Structures are given as C-alpha cells and as structure tokens.
Amino acid sequence: MTTKLPWLVPVVFAATPLVAEAAPSDRDTASTDGSTSVTSTEQEHDPATDIASITADRGIVTRPGRFTIEPSFSHAHSNSTAVAVEGYTVIPALLIGLINISEIQRDIFVGAMSLKYGFTSKLEAAIRVPYLSINEDLREREVFQGTPVDTLRESSGEGLGDVELSARYQLTDGLGGWPYVIGAMRVKAPTGEGPYDVDQRIIRDEQGNPIGIELENRPTGSGFWAFEPGFSFIYPTDPAVLFGNLSYVWTLKEEQGFENGGTVDPGDIVRFGFGMGFAFNDRTSFSLSYDHSIIRKTTFERNNDLFASNFDRIQIGSLSFGLSQRLTRSTSLSLTVSVGVTENAPNSEITLKLPISL
C-alpha cells in the first residue's frame, strides 16, 4: 500500500502507572503509648508520583533494592482519508480532471514487558521489550484512473519491536515547596524490523512519475538508533498534583543504499506534556494529561524527488484520561484512554497496565 517512509521512524513510549496511597486501615499501631506507626511498605509509597505516572512515566524513581515488573497491552486505531487531484479549475467552484480518494485504516496491538530496578534512593534503570502486531487496510480507486470500482488491499506485520533502555535520576526531593525533578536518558535500539528492512516497490502514475511507496509488510520498528534525554517534574498541591515533562529525541543517521537516497537522517523529535490528577480515595486515582510531539522532516544525502513535497515538520498531539486502582500493597491496575487531537495522531488508543512491585 502507499506509505510515506519518513514518518514511520517516530515511535511512542508506553506509560508506566503505579499504585495509589496506602489505606489507613492497613497501618500498624504501636503497643504502649497509643501512637501510630507506618509500615515500611507504606513509607515507600508516595501518592503524588502514582498520580503523575498513570498516563506516562513521570513518577519518582523506584526505591533502592526494589524491582517493578509491568506487563502492558495497548491498542491504537487510526483512520484517515487522502484526496489526490489531477486536473484544472475553470472557476473556483468547478474542477475538471480526475480525483483519487483513498481511505486507510490501521490497527496496532502492542504487548510489552517492562522491568525497573532501583539502585539507590535517586537512581533507577529500566528495560522495556515490546511485541507488535499491525494490520492495515487501504481502500481506493485505481490511481488517476476514471473507474467507479474501488479496490481493497491489506497488509500486516508482526514481530519484536524496538527495545528501550532507560535510566532516571531524581534531582530534587520535593522539599521546601519545590517540585520533584527527575532527569532521564532513554536509548531505543533498532531491534524491530525497520521500513528499509522490508520489501518495497515504488508506485508510479501513467507518466512514470513516482507518487508513493508500497511496503510488502508493516515494519515493527524504526530501523534507527535513538537517544532521548529529558526531565520531568511533579508538584503536589493538595488536593491535586501537577506534572509535566520535556525531552528531545536524537536519531542517528544511517546509510540505506543508493536507491533509498544514500545516508538517511530521520527527523529529530521534541516531546512535551503536562497535566494534573487527584485521588478519589486511598486506592483510586484519576489523571488528565496532554502530550505533544514535533517531528522534523527526514533528510536524504541524495535528492529524493518522491519525498520532496513533504512538510518540514508534523505535529502529533493527544489528550489522555487515566484511572488507576490499587489492588494490593504491591500491585495496581491502570487504564488509559488517549484521543488524537491532530491529524497525524492515532484516532484513539487504549492502554492497560499491571505494575507489580517486588
């Protein structure tokens, strides 16, 4: 089917929900003076970081010596319509020529396993391994042909995605009215099958001009190494919690062959997000956030006329609603629903996560 390769490079990171505040009924009482003491499990628990982490990985680092295992599953759906016109206008309201209309439906299923470990009270490391299944349908009429018959083409892809390694360091303790500030570095390895790894062919019009690229299978990875430094903040202000993040994704350029434009330099990405949340009670939390990515245009060592008319950048924005329910002292369940608010964002995405602390 027809696809523009430069925009296959960017990827999205999974959110990491945590647990809600410990229930007062779970606290142990002292024996003699009637004072109340808190168990070690509850001392390690911070409701502010739990709320901030429902829709994205913005929480305080994992406690030293603790593991967190997080299986997750997500489904993203996209539906878009493209119109191509070959003709001329007689008056502004009258067009003479051929109109090609295509509709694309895409479903992406991602199952992932994440593992976090706290080395110190301020340093955490994590790894995330995703597995993707992609289904894409294209309904269109023959390119620039005056036929009333629609054609339907299907393509799919399945396999290991790009493995992510990350480290986070807590810069502040949130004392004295200051927010928690956490610095992070994330590295994404091209372990998935990239767009230049699958078979492809160039689609041409009747005059032989290239108008797109058709991939035999859907790629499950970006095909490039990527490095993402950034930071996040959490500011508790009773009864709400404010949070946000800012990062920059730098993607390494790579030689992809003469027929693909020589050395390909994928566009770098600026990401930012912000939101707020609050706890309904000691076990249930709610969060509302907005996340945005600005993706720059991919450049080629050798001029590639096929992509010469692409925009210099594209905007991807989504609004997310998250709900987290604490099941036990060490386990919680969270559900996040994201709605795309820009043209290039998925129409909807549902994510389910089950973080377990050991």
List the helices and strands and how they pair.
Elements: E1 2-3, H1 40-43, H2 47-52, E2 67-91, E3 94-118, E4 123-141, E5 150-160, E6 164-170, E7 180-188, E8 200-204, E9 210-215, E10 226-237, E11 240-251, E12 254-255, E13 263-265, E14 269-279, E15 284-296, E16 299-300, E17 313-326, E18 332-340, E19 348-353, E20 356-357
Antiparallel strand pairs: 1-9, 2-3, 2-19, 2-20, 3-4, 4-5, 4-6, 6-7, 7-10, 8-9, 10-11, 11-14, 12-13, 13-16, 14-15, 15-17, 17-18, 18-19
Low-confidence stretches: 1-44, 85-98
- The helicity comes to under 10%
Question: Compute the gyration radius: what is it?
Answer: 24 Å
Strand order of the largest sheet: 2-3-4-6-7-10-11-14-15-17-18-19
Label the overall shape: globular
CATH architecture: Beta Barrel
- Total beta strand runs: 20
Q: Might you state the CATH topology name?
A: Porin
Measured distance between first and last alpha carbons: 46 Å
- Our count of helices gives 2
Mean pLDDT equals: 77
Order of helices and strands: EHHEEEEEEEEEEEEEEEEEEE
CATH H-level superfamily title: monomeric porin ompg
- Please state roughly what percent of the residues sit in beta strands, choosing from under 5%, 5-15%, 15-25%, 25-35%, 35-45% or over 45%: over 45%
Q: Find the structural class using helix and strand composition.
A: mainly beta
- Counted up, domains total 1
Biggest beta sheet attributes: 12 strands, antiparallel, barrel
Kindly provide the name of the CATH class.
Mainly Beta
